[in-house]
Inverse folding.
């Protein structure tokens, strides 16, 4: 909470330029998620109730920047494994998702400057937001965290867009923990085109684990079909404090119904690690249905094709109802 | 229970809704630069498209409706060169046989269409619609002039327009409906404030 207060203090000089309600968007966002993990024969629920807000700051000569703030009370019920933000499988807590300011009123030759808690600019997640959705591009698993506190530089130019950040590696805490840090960056073609290509890099130490990662991502859209891919090479010292190489590939085929209410997707994820006997092969299938502008229902299922070393195949089914008001 | 009070109170007084999380909002800065190469900045004005506005669109353009993604809070951009405005940009979506078509419309200060660029268009004839000959169907026209291009069915363009739009007549229908709704909403929602710019 203190970080949100800090952001409020930082923005207060800007607020004097305009009435607070001017150019403000906000919604109450509530969701209930049911998970069944067949691998450990466990069913769990996750409830979230929060406030999602967006505010554009302007002056007479134009926009100066914008702020995004998302604060959610999240309650677990029998959730195993326990996410790092919580203390027990039935814990509940206030969670800050995105909370950042992006100063856009910089000279044309200078980038915009972002400060706060934001999604790491890497791979497909950079142009496709998955916060609060069942759709996932495994940012947290691959990078060690999905969001982090820090500073970023970003810009959309005539031909390309880029976003680089230096963050503290504290994940939900706005501080460096035992020397943690993360340097993340992506440069890509314009994200409103039908063919998008991007290159990402990552170097970090988070939770005592060093990670390096290089990736290329593609998005190709044809009529109501989309084909997406993220290919990465990386290494970490998670195992035996030695560097372990990893090859990672995610492929997604999705289809959106003409009226945009129904979206279905399937993903294939291949992960090859040095010390692993077989390549992990995961399949995800999912759908989301926008029942009304306020109400969305989504389903997803994940299963593993290979037998992992510990013989615990991933088999996870999830359902979510989400209401925004 | 105290921790639930604030969201519940906010829920009671909230009227608007946007289906997407706000962290995914992106200003169409590349398209704005394409439409107004001399711009130095843009000035956003966010307004609410609600059921009342939707009903006004249905009255002014019978047999037309707004897609659910068109409801909620939307931004009109006043394009600035220093402290002077060059015109406006308003992004609107329209349904088509290839999914939603999202168009960034450049609007002149007299509320006529000045130009347009696609934020998203997956029609096989997209390149045809980007040619000047196609664009000239819309450029320089205000709401009333564009409405005269509409067939009596209220949703398709007149034959003369479709002939001129060859080989992309379906896209001409989509763009005509989209341009009409864009100019109508611009005037209803932002008209008073735009007089200052």
């Amino acid at each position: 909470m203190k970080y949100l207060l800090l952001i409020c203090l930082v923005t207060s000089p800007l607020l004097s330029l305009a009435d607070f309600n001017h150019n403000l968007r906000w919604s109450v966002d509530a969701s209930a998620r049911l998970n069944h993990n067949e691998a450990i024969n466990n069913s769990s629920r996750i409830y979230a109730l929060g406030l999602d807000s967006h505010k554009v700051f302007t002056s007479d000569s134009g926009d100066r920047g914008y702020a995004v703030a998302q604060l959610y009370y999240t309650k677990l019920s029998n959730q195993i494994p326990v996410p790092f933000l919580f203390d027990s499988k039935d814990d509940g807590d206030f969670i800050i998702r995105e909370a950042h300011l992006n100063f856009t009123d910089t000279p044309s030759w200078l980038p915009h400057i972002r400060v706060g808690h934001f999604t790491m600019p890497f791979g497909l997640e950079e142009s496709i937001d998955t916060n609060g959705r069942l759709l996932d591009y495994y940012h947290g698993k691959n990078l060690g965290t999905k969001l982090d506190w820090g500073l970023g530089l970003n810009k959309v130019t005539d031909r390309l867009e880029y976003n680089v950040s230096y963050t503290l590696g504290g994940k939900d805490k706005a501080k460096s923990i035992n020397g943690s840090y993360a340097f993340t960056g992506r440069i890509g073609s314009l994200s409103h085109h039908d063919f998008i290509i991007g290159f990402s890099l990552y170097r970090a130490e988070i939770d005592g684990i060093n990670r390096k990662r290089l990736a290329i991502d593609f998005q190709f859209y044809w009529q109501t079909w989309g084909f997406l891919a993220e290919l990465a090479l990386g290494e970490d010292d998670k195992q035996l404090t030695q560097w372990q190489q990893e090859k990672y590939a995610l492929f997604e085929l999705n289809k959106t119904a003409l009226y945009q209410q129904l979206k279905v997707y399937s993903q294939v994820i291949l992960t090859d690690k040095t010390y692993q006997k077989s390549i992990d092969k995961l399949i995800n299938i999912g759908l989301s249905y926008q029942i009304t502008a306020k109400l969305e229902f989504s389903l997803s299922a994940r299963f593993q094709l290979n037998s992992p070393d510990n013989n615990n195949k991933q088999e996870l089914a999830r359902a979510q109802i989400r209401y925004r008001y | 229970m105290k921790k639930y009070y604030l969201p519940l109170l906010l829920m009671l007084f909230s009227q608007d809704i946007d289906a997407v999380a706000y962290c995914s909002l992106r200003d169409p800065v590349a398209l704005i630069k394409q439409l107004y190469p001399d711009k130095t900045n843009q000035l956003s004005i966010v307004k609410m498209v609600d059921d009342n506005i939707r009903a006004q669109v249905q009255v002014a353009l019978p047999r037309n409706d707004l897609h659910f993604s068109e409801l909620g809070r939307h931004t009109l951009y006043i394009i600035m060169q220093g402290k002077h405005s060059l015109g406006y940009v308003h992004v609107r979506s329209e349904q088509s046989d290839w999914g939603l078509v999202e168009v960034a419309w450049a609007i002149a200060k007299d509320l006529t269409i000045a130009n347009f660029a696609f934020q998203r268009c997956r029609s096989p004839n997209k390149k045809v619609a980007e040619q000047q000959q196609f664009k000239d169907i819309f450029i320089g026209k205000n709401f009333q002039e564009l409405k005269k291009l509409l067939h009596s069915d209220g949703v398709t363009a007149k034959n003369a327009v479709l002939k001129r739009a060859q080989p992309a007549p379906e896209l001409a229908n989509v763009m005509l409906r989209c341009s009409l709704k864009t100019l109508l909403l611009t005037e209803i929602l932002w008209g008073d404030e735009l007089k200052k710019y």
